[in-house]
């Protein structure tokens, strides 16, 4: 265990809203051991940005970690050349060029079809009726698992996300995670004969063509599903909610004063969908007066970094005019999110402009509160709106 000061937290309160606790930690103990999480937390933006690049110290390779144990050893839990080999194998699918030339048109077709099915003049749950199916259909295309429904994709993603954040060891959560990974394996087995004969530009297609061992193919497809459904779904609904609750900023974007991408990037800073990334200390190390021990667990708190007062004025406020260049919403080092370009295309190039162009008026319904929870993975659980 590190020599960092011990800070106790109220876990339910931290789940509901981690930002007050994180702000207090940044001020009083920016590196602190939290016994309720069994980990030392880094909460300041500069410490996180520097440490994430020091893979010889803050290692992503965690043999006993929840992700390895529950989902298989994917590229996110590898460092150096081992990570880069698998990242390069996947790159032909998620490169900026492929996203622009191939995936964006498919994303647009999915968005148009789902919007066409929404009855005008009614009340909908935007999360359930658009964000979830749109994210799921896009992910089906990009992973190559077109033999399943978007609801399966969403359930599997949620099961794995909950599983790898299950630091309390809840048996029911772990069982749902195992069910999710088993479902993905079955879907891969089902489509494998077709994909082998007719490889395409999907993640499954390019990984199979690369000669990657099947165990790693499965692990990396699961990785793509765990983040590729959960985060975009929440970010789409969350950015819409943020803009609807800040109408003057929505008007600014609509008039072209700020881009849809800038609005999305500010939301991703403000309510970081990925609030934390775990690391293993690979060798004894010190930051200022805090010493770390070999193999201890450290959490890089991205959600805290993105509200660091040293870099963001009025950090707790949503402001589409903000310079978000210091944000670490997609990471800051060699593990920078490989799906960032696809996410930006889905949300900023397709979902947001299409939604606000197609809906003459969309407003938040007042008959149900909007629920936002989570600290490792944070976002909206629902978004009741009236759709005109």
Automatic annotation (TrEMBL):
<dbReference type="GO" id="GO:0020037">
    <property type="term" value="F:heme binding"/>
</dbReference>
<keyword id="KW-0503">Monooxygenase</keyword>
<comment type="similarity">
    <text>Belongs to the cytochrome P450 family.</text>
</comment>
<dbReference type="InterPro" id="IPR017972">
    <property type="entry name" value="Cyt_P450_CS"/>
</dbReference>
<dbReference type="InterPro" id="IPR002397">
    <property type="entry name" value="Cyt_P450_B"/>
</dbReference>
<keyword id="KW-0349">Heme</keyword>
<dbReference type="GO" id="GO:0016705">
    <property type="term" value="F:oxidoreductase activity, acting on paired donors, with incorporation or reduction of molecular oxygen"/>
</dbReference>
<keyword id="KW-0408">Iron</keyword>
<protein>
    <submittedName>
        <fullName>Cytochrome P450</fullName>
    </submittedName>
</protein>
<dbReference type="GO" id="GO:0005506">
    <property type="term" value="F:iron ion binding"/>
</dbReference>
<dbReference type="InterPro" id="IPR036396">
    <property type="entry name" value="Cyt_P450_sf"/>
</dbReference>
<keyword id="KW-0479">Metal-binding</keyword>
<dbReference type="InterPro" id="IPR001128">
    <property type="entry name" value="Cyt_P450"/>
</dbReference>
<dbReference type="Pfam" id="PF00067">
    <property type="entry name" value="p450"/>
</dbReference>
<dbReference type="GO" id="GO:0004497">
    <property type="term" value="F:monooxygenase activity"/>
</dbReference>
<keyword id="KW-0560">Oxidoreductase</keyword>
């Amino acid at each position: 265990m590190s020599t960092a000061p011990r800070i106790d937290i109220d876990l339910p309160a931290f789940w509901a809203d981690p930002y007050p606790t994180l702000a207090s930690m940044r001020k009083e103990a920016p590196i602190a051991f939290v016994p309720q999480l069994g980990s030392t937390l880094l909460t300041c933006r500069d410490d996180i940005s520097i440490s994430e690049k020091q893979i010889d110290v803050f290692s992503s390779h965690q043999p006993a970690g929840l992700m390895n144990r529950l989902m298989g050893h994917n590229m996110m839990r590898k460092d150096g050349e081992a990570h880069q080999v698998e990242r390069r194998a996947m790159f032909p699918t998620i490169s900026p060029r492929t996203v622009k030339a191939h995936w964006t048109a498919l994303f647009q077709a999915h968005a148009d079809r789902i919007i066409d099915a929404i009855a005008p003049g009614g009340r909908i749950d935007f999360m359930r009726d658009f964000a979830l199916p749109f994210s799921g259909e896009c992910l089906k295309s990009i992973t190559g698992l077109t033999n399943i429904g978007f609801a399966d994709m969403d359930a599997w993603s949620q099961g794995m996300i909950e599983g790898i954040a299950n630091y309390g060891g809840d048996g029911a959560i772990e069982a749902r995670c195992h069910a999710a990974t088993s479902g993905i394996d079955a879907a891969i087995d089902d489509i494998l004969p077709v994909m082998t004969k007719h490889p395409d530009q999907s993640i499954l297609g390019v990984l199979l063509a690369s000669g990657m061992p099947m165990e790693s193919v499965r692990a990396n497809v699961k990785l793509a599903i765990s983040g590729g459904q959960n985060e975009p779904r929440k970010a789409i609904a969350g950015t819409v909610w943020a803009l609807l609750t800040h109408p003057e900023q929505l008007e600014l974007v609509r008039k072209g004063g700020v881009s849809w991408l800038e609005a999305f990037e500010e939301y991703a800073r403000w309510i970081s969908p990925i609030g934390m990334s775990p690391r293993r200390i690979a060798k004894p190390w010190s930051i200022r007066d805090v010493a770390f021990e070999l193999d201890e667990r450290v959490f890089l708190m991205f959600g805290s970094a993105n509200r660091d007062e040293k870099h963001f004025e009025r950090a707790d406020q949503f402001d589409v005019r903000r310079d978000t260049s210091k944000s670490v919403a997609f990471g800051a080092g060699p593990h920078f999110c490989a799906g960032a370009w696809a996410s930006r295309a889905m949300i900023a190039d397709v979902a947001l402009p299409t939604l606000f162009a197609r809906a003459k008026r969309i407003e938040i319904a007042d008959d149900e509160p909007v629920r936002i929870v989570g600290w490792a993975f944070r976002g909206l659980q629902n978004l009741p709106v009236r759709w005109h």
